[in-house]
Inverse folding.
């Protein structure tokens, strides 16, 4: 859990285990809703088509899914609202090229733009937070279980052993991440954020690490809001 994990944590795309759409809010053309804003299936398709067109002959190896697009569109909206609380704005020149390499798409694609802007705001907001609230055992247990599930802890390690072995700098970063997660909940809850069941579950990841063996990125802290509500699902792919 070194400082170098920060770029990985921002790559999450990640996102929200969001509420299911109620029958009245969810047409088959609505992928998700954030307050009064609707993310339509047409919008999702446009982002995918843009990525495919940019890849040209390599479009068959598209590195993102429809779920990824819904995820980043919802996350971008929510992090904008959180950033406004902290007077955090995007820098003049976000690192589109750097994130493009991580996503494996051209820097000119809309997906990379959304992904980069979400990740940059997420990181900058977290850096601006000054919470001194200690991490609860529940917070640390969630981190412990996520690490264990992804092979990040030696087999047989107990929670008590883990808790006493986390470096102070990592604890400070986790504390900031948990504070951001809680603030995402505060922003999202009154908006009745919802996502079509075909795209659930989604999490807004705020602290990720890379599995050194598999090179996969997974979240240690993530915001989950809402509940599942069953609605009709039609094939719009």
């Amino acid at each position: 859990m070194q400082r170098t994990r920060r770029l990985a944590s921002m790559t999450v795309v990640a996102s929200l285990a969001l509420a299911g759409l109620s029958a009245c809010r969810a047409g088959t053309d609505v992928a998700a809703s954030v307050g009064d804003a609707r993310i339509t299936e047409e919008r999702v398709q446009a982002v995918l088509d843009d990525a495919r067109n940019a890849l040209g002959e390599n479009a068959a190896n598209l590195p993102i899914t429809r779920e990824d697009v819904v995820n980043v569109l919802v996350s971008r909206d929510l992090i904008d609202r959180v950033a406004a609380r902290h007077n955090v704005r995007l820098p003049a020149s976000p690192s589109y090229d750097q994130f493009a390499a991580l996503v494996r798409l051209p820097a000119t694609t809309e997906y990379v733009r959304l992904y980069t802007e979400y990740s940059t705001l997420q990181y900058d907001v977290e850096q601006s937070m000054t919470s001194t609230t200690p991490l609860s055992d529940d917070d640390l247990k969630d981190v412990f279980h996520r690490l264990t599930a992804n092979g990040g802890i030696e087999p047989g390690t107990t929670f008590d052993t883990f808790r006493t072995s986390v470096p102070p700098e990592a604890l400070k970063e986790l504390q900031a991440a948990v504070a951001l997660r809680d603030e995402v909940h505060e922003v999202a809850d009154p908006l009745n954020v919802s996502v079509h069941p075909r795209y659930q579950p989604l999490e807004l990841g705020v602290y990720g690490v890379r599995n050194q063996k598999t090179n996969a990125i997974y979240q240690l802290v993530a915001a989950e809001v809402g509940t599942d509500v069953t609605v009709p699902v039609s094939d719009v792919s």
The beta strands are 19-20, 30-34, 37-40, 194-195, 204-210, 217-223. The first strand starts at residue 19 and ends at 20. The CA atoms of residues 17 and 185 lie 11 Å apart. The helical segments are 5-10, 41-55, 66-85, 96-103, 110-128, 137-149, 159-165, 168-188.
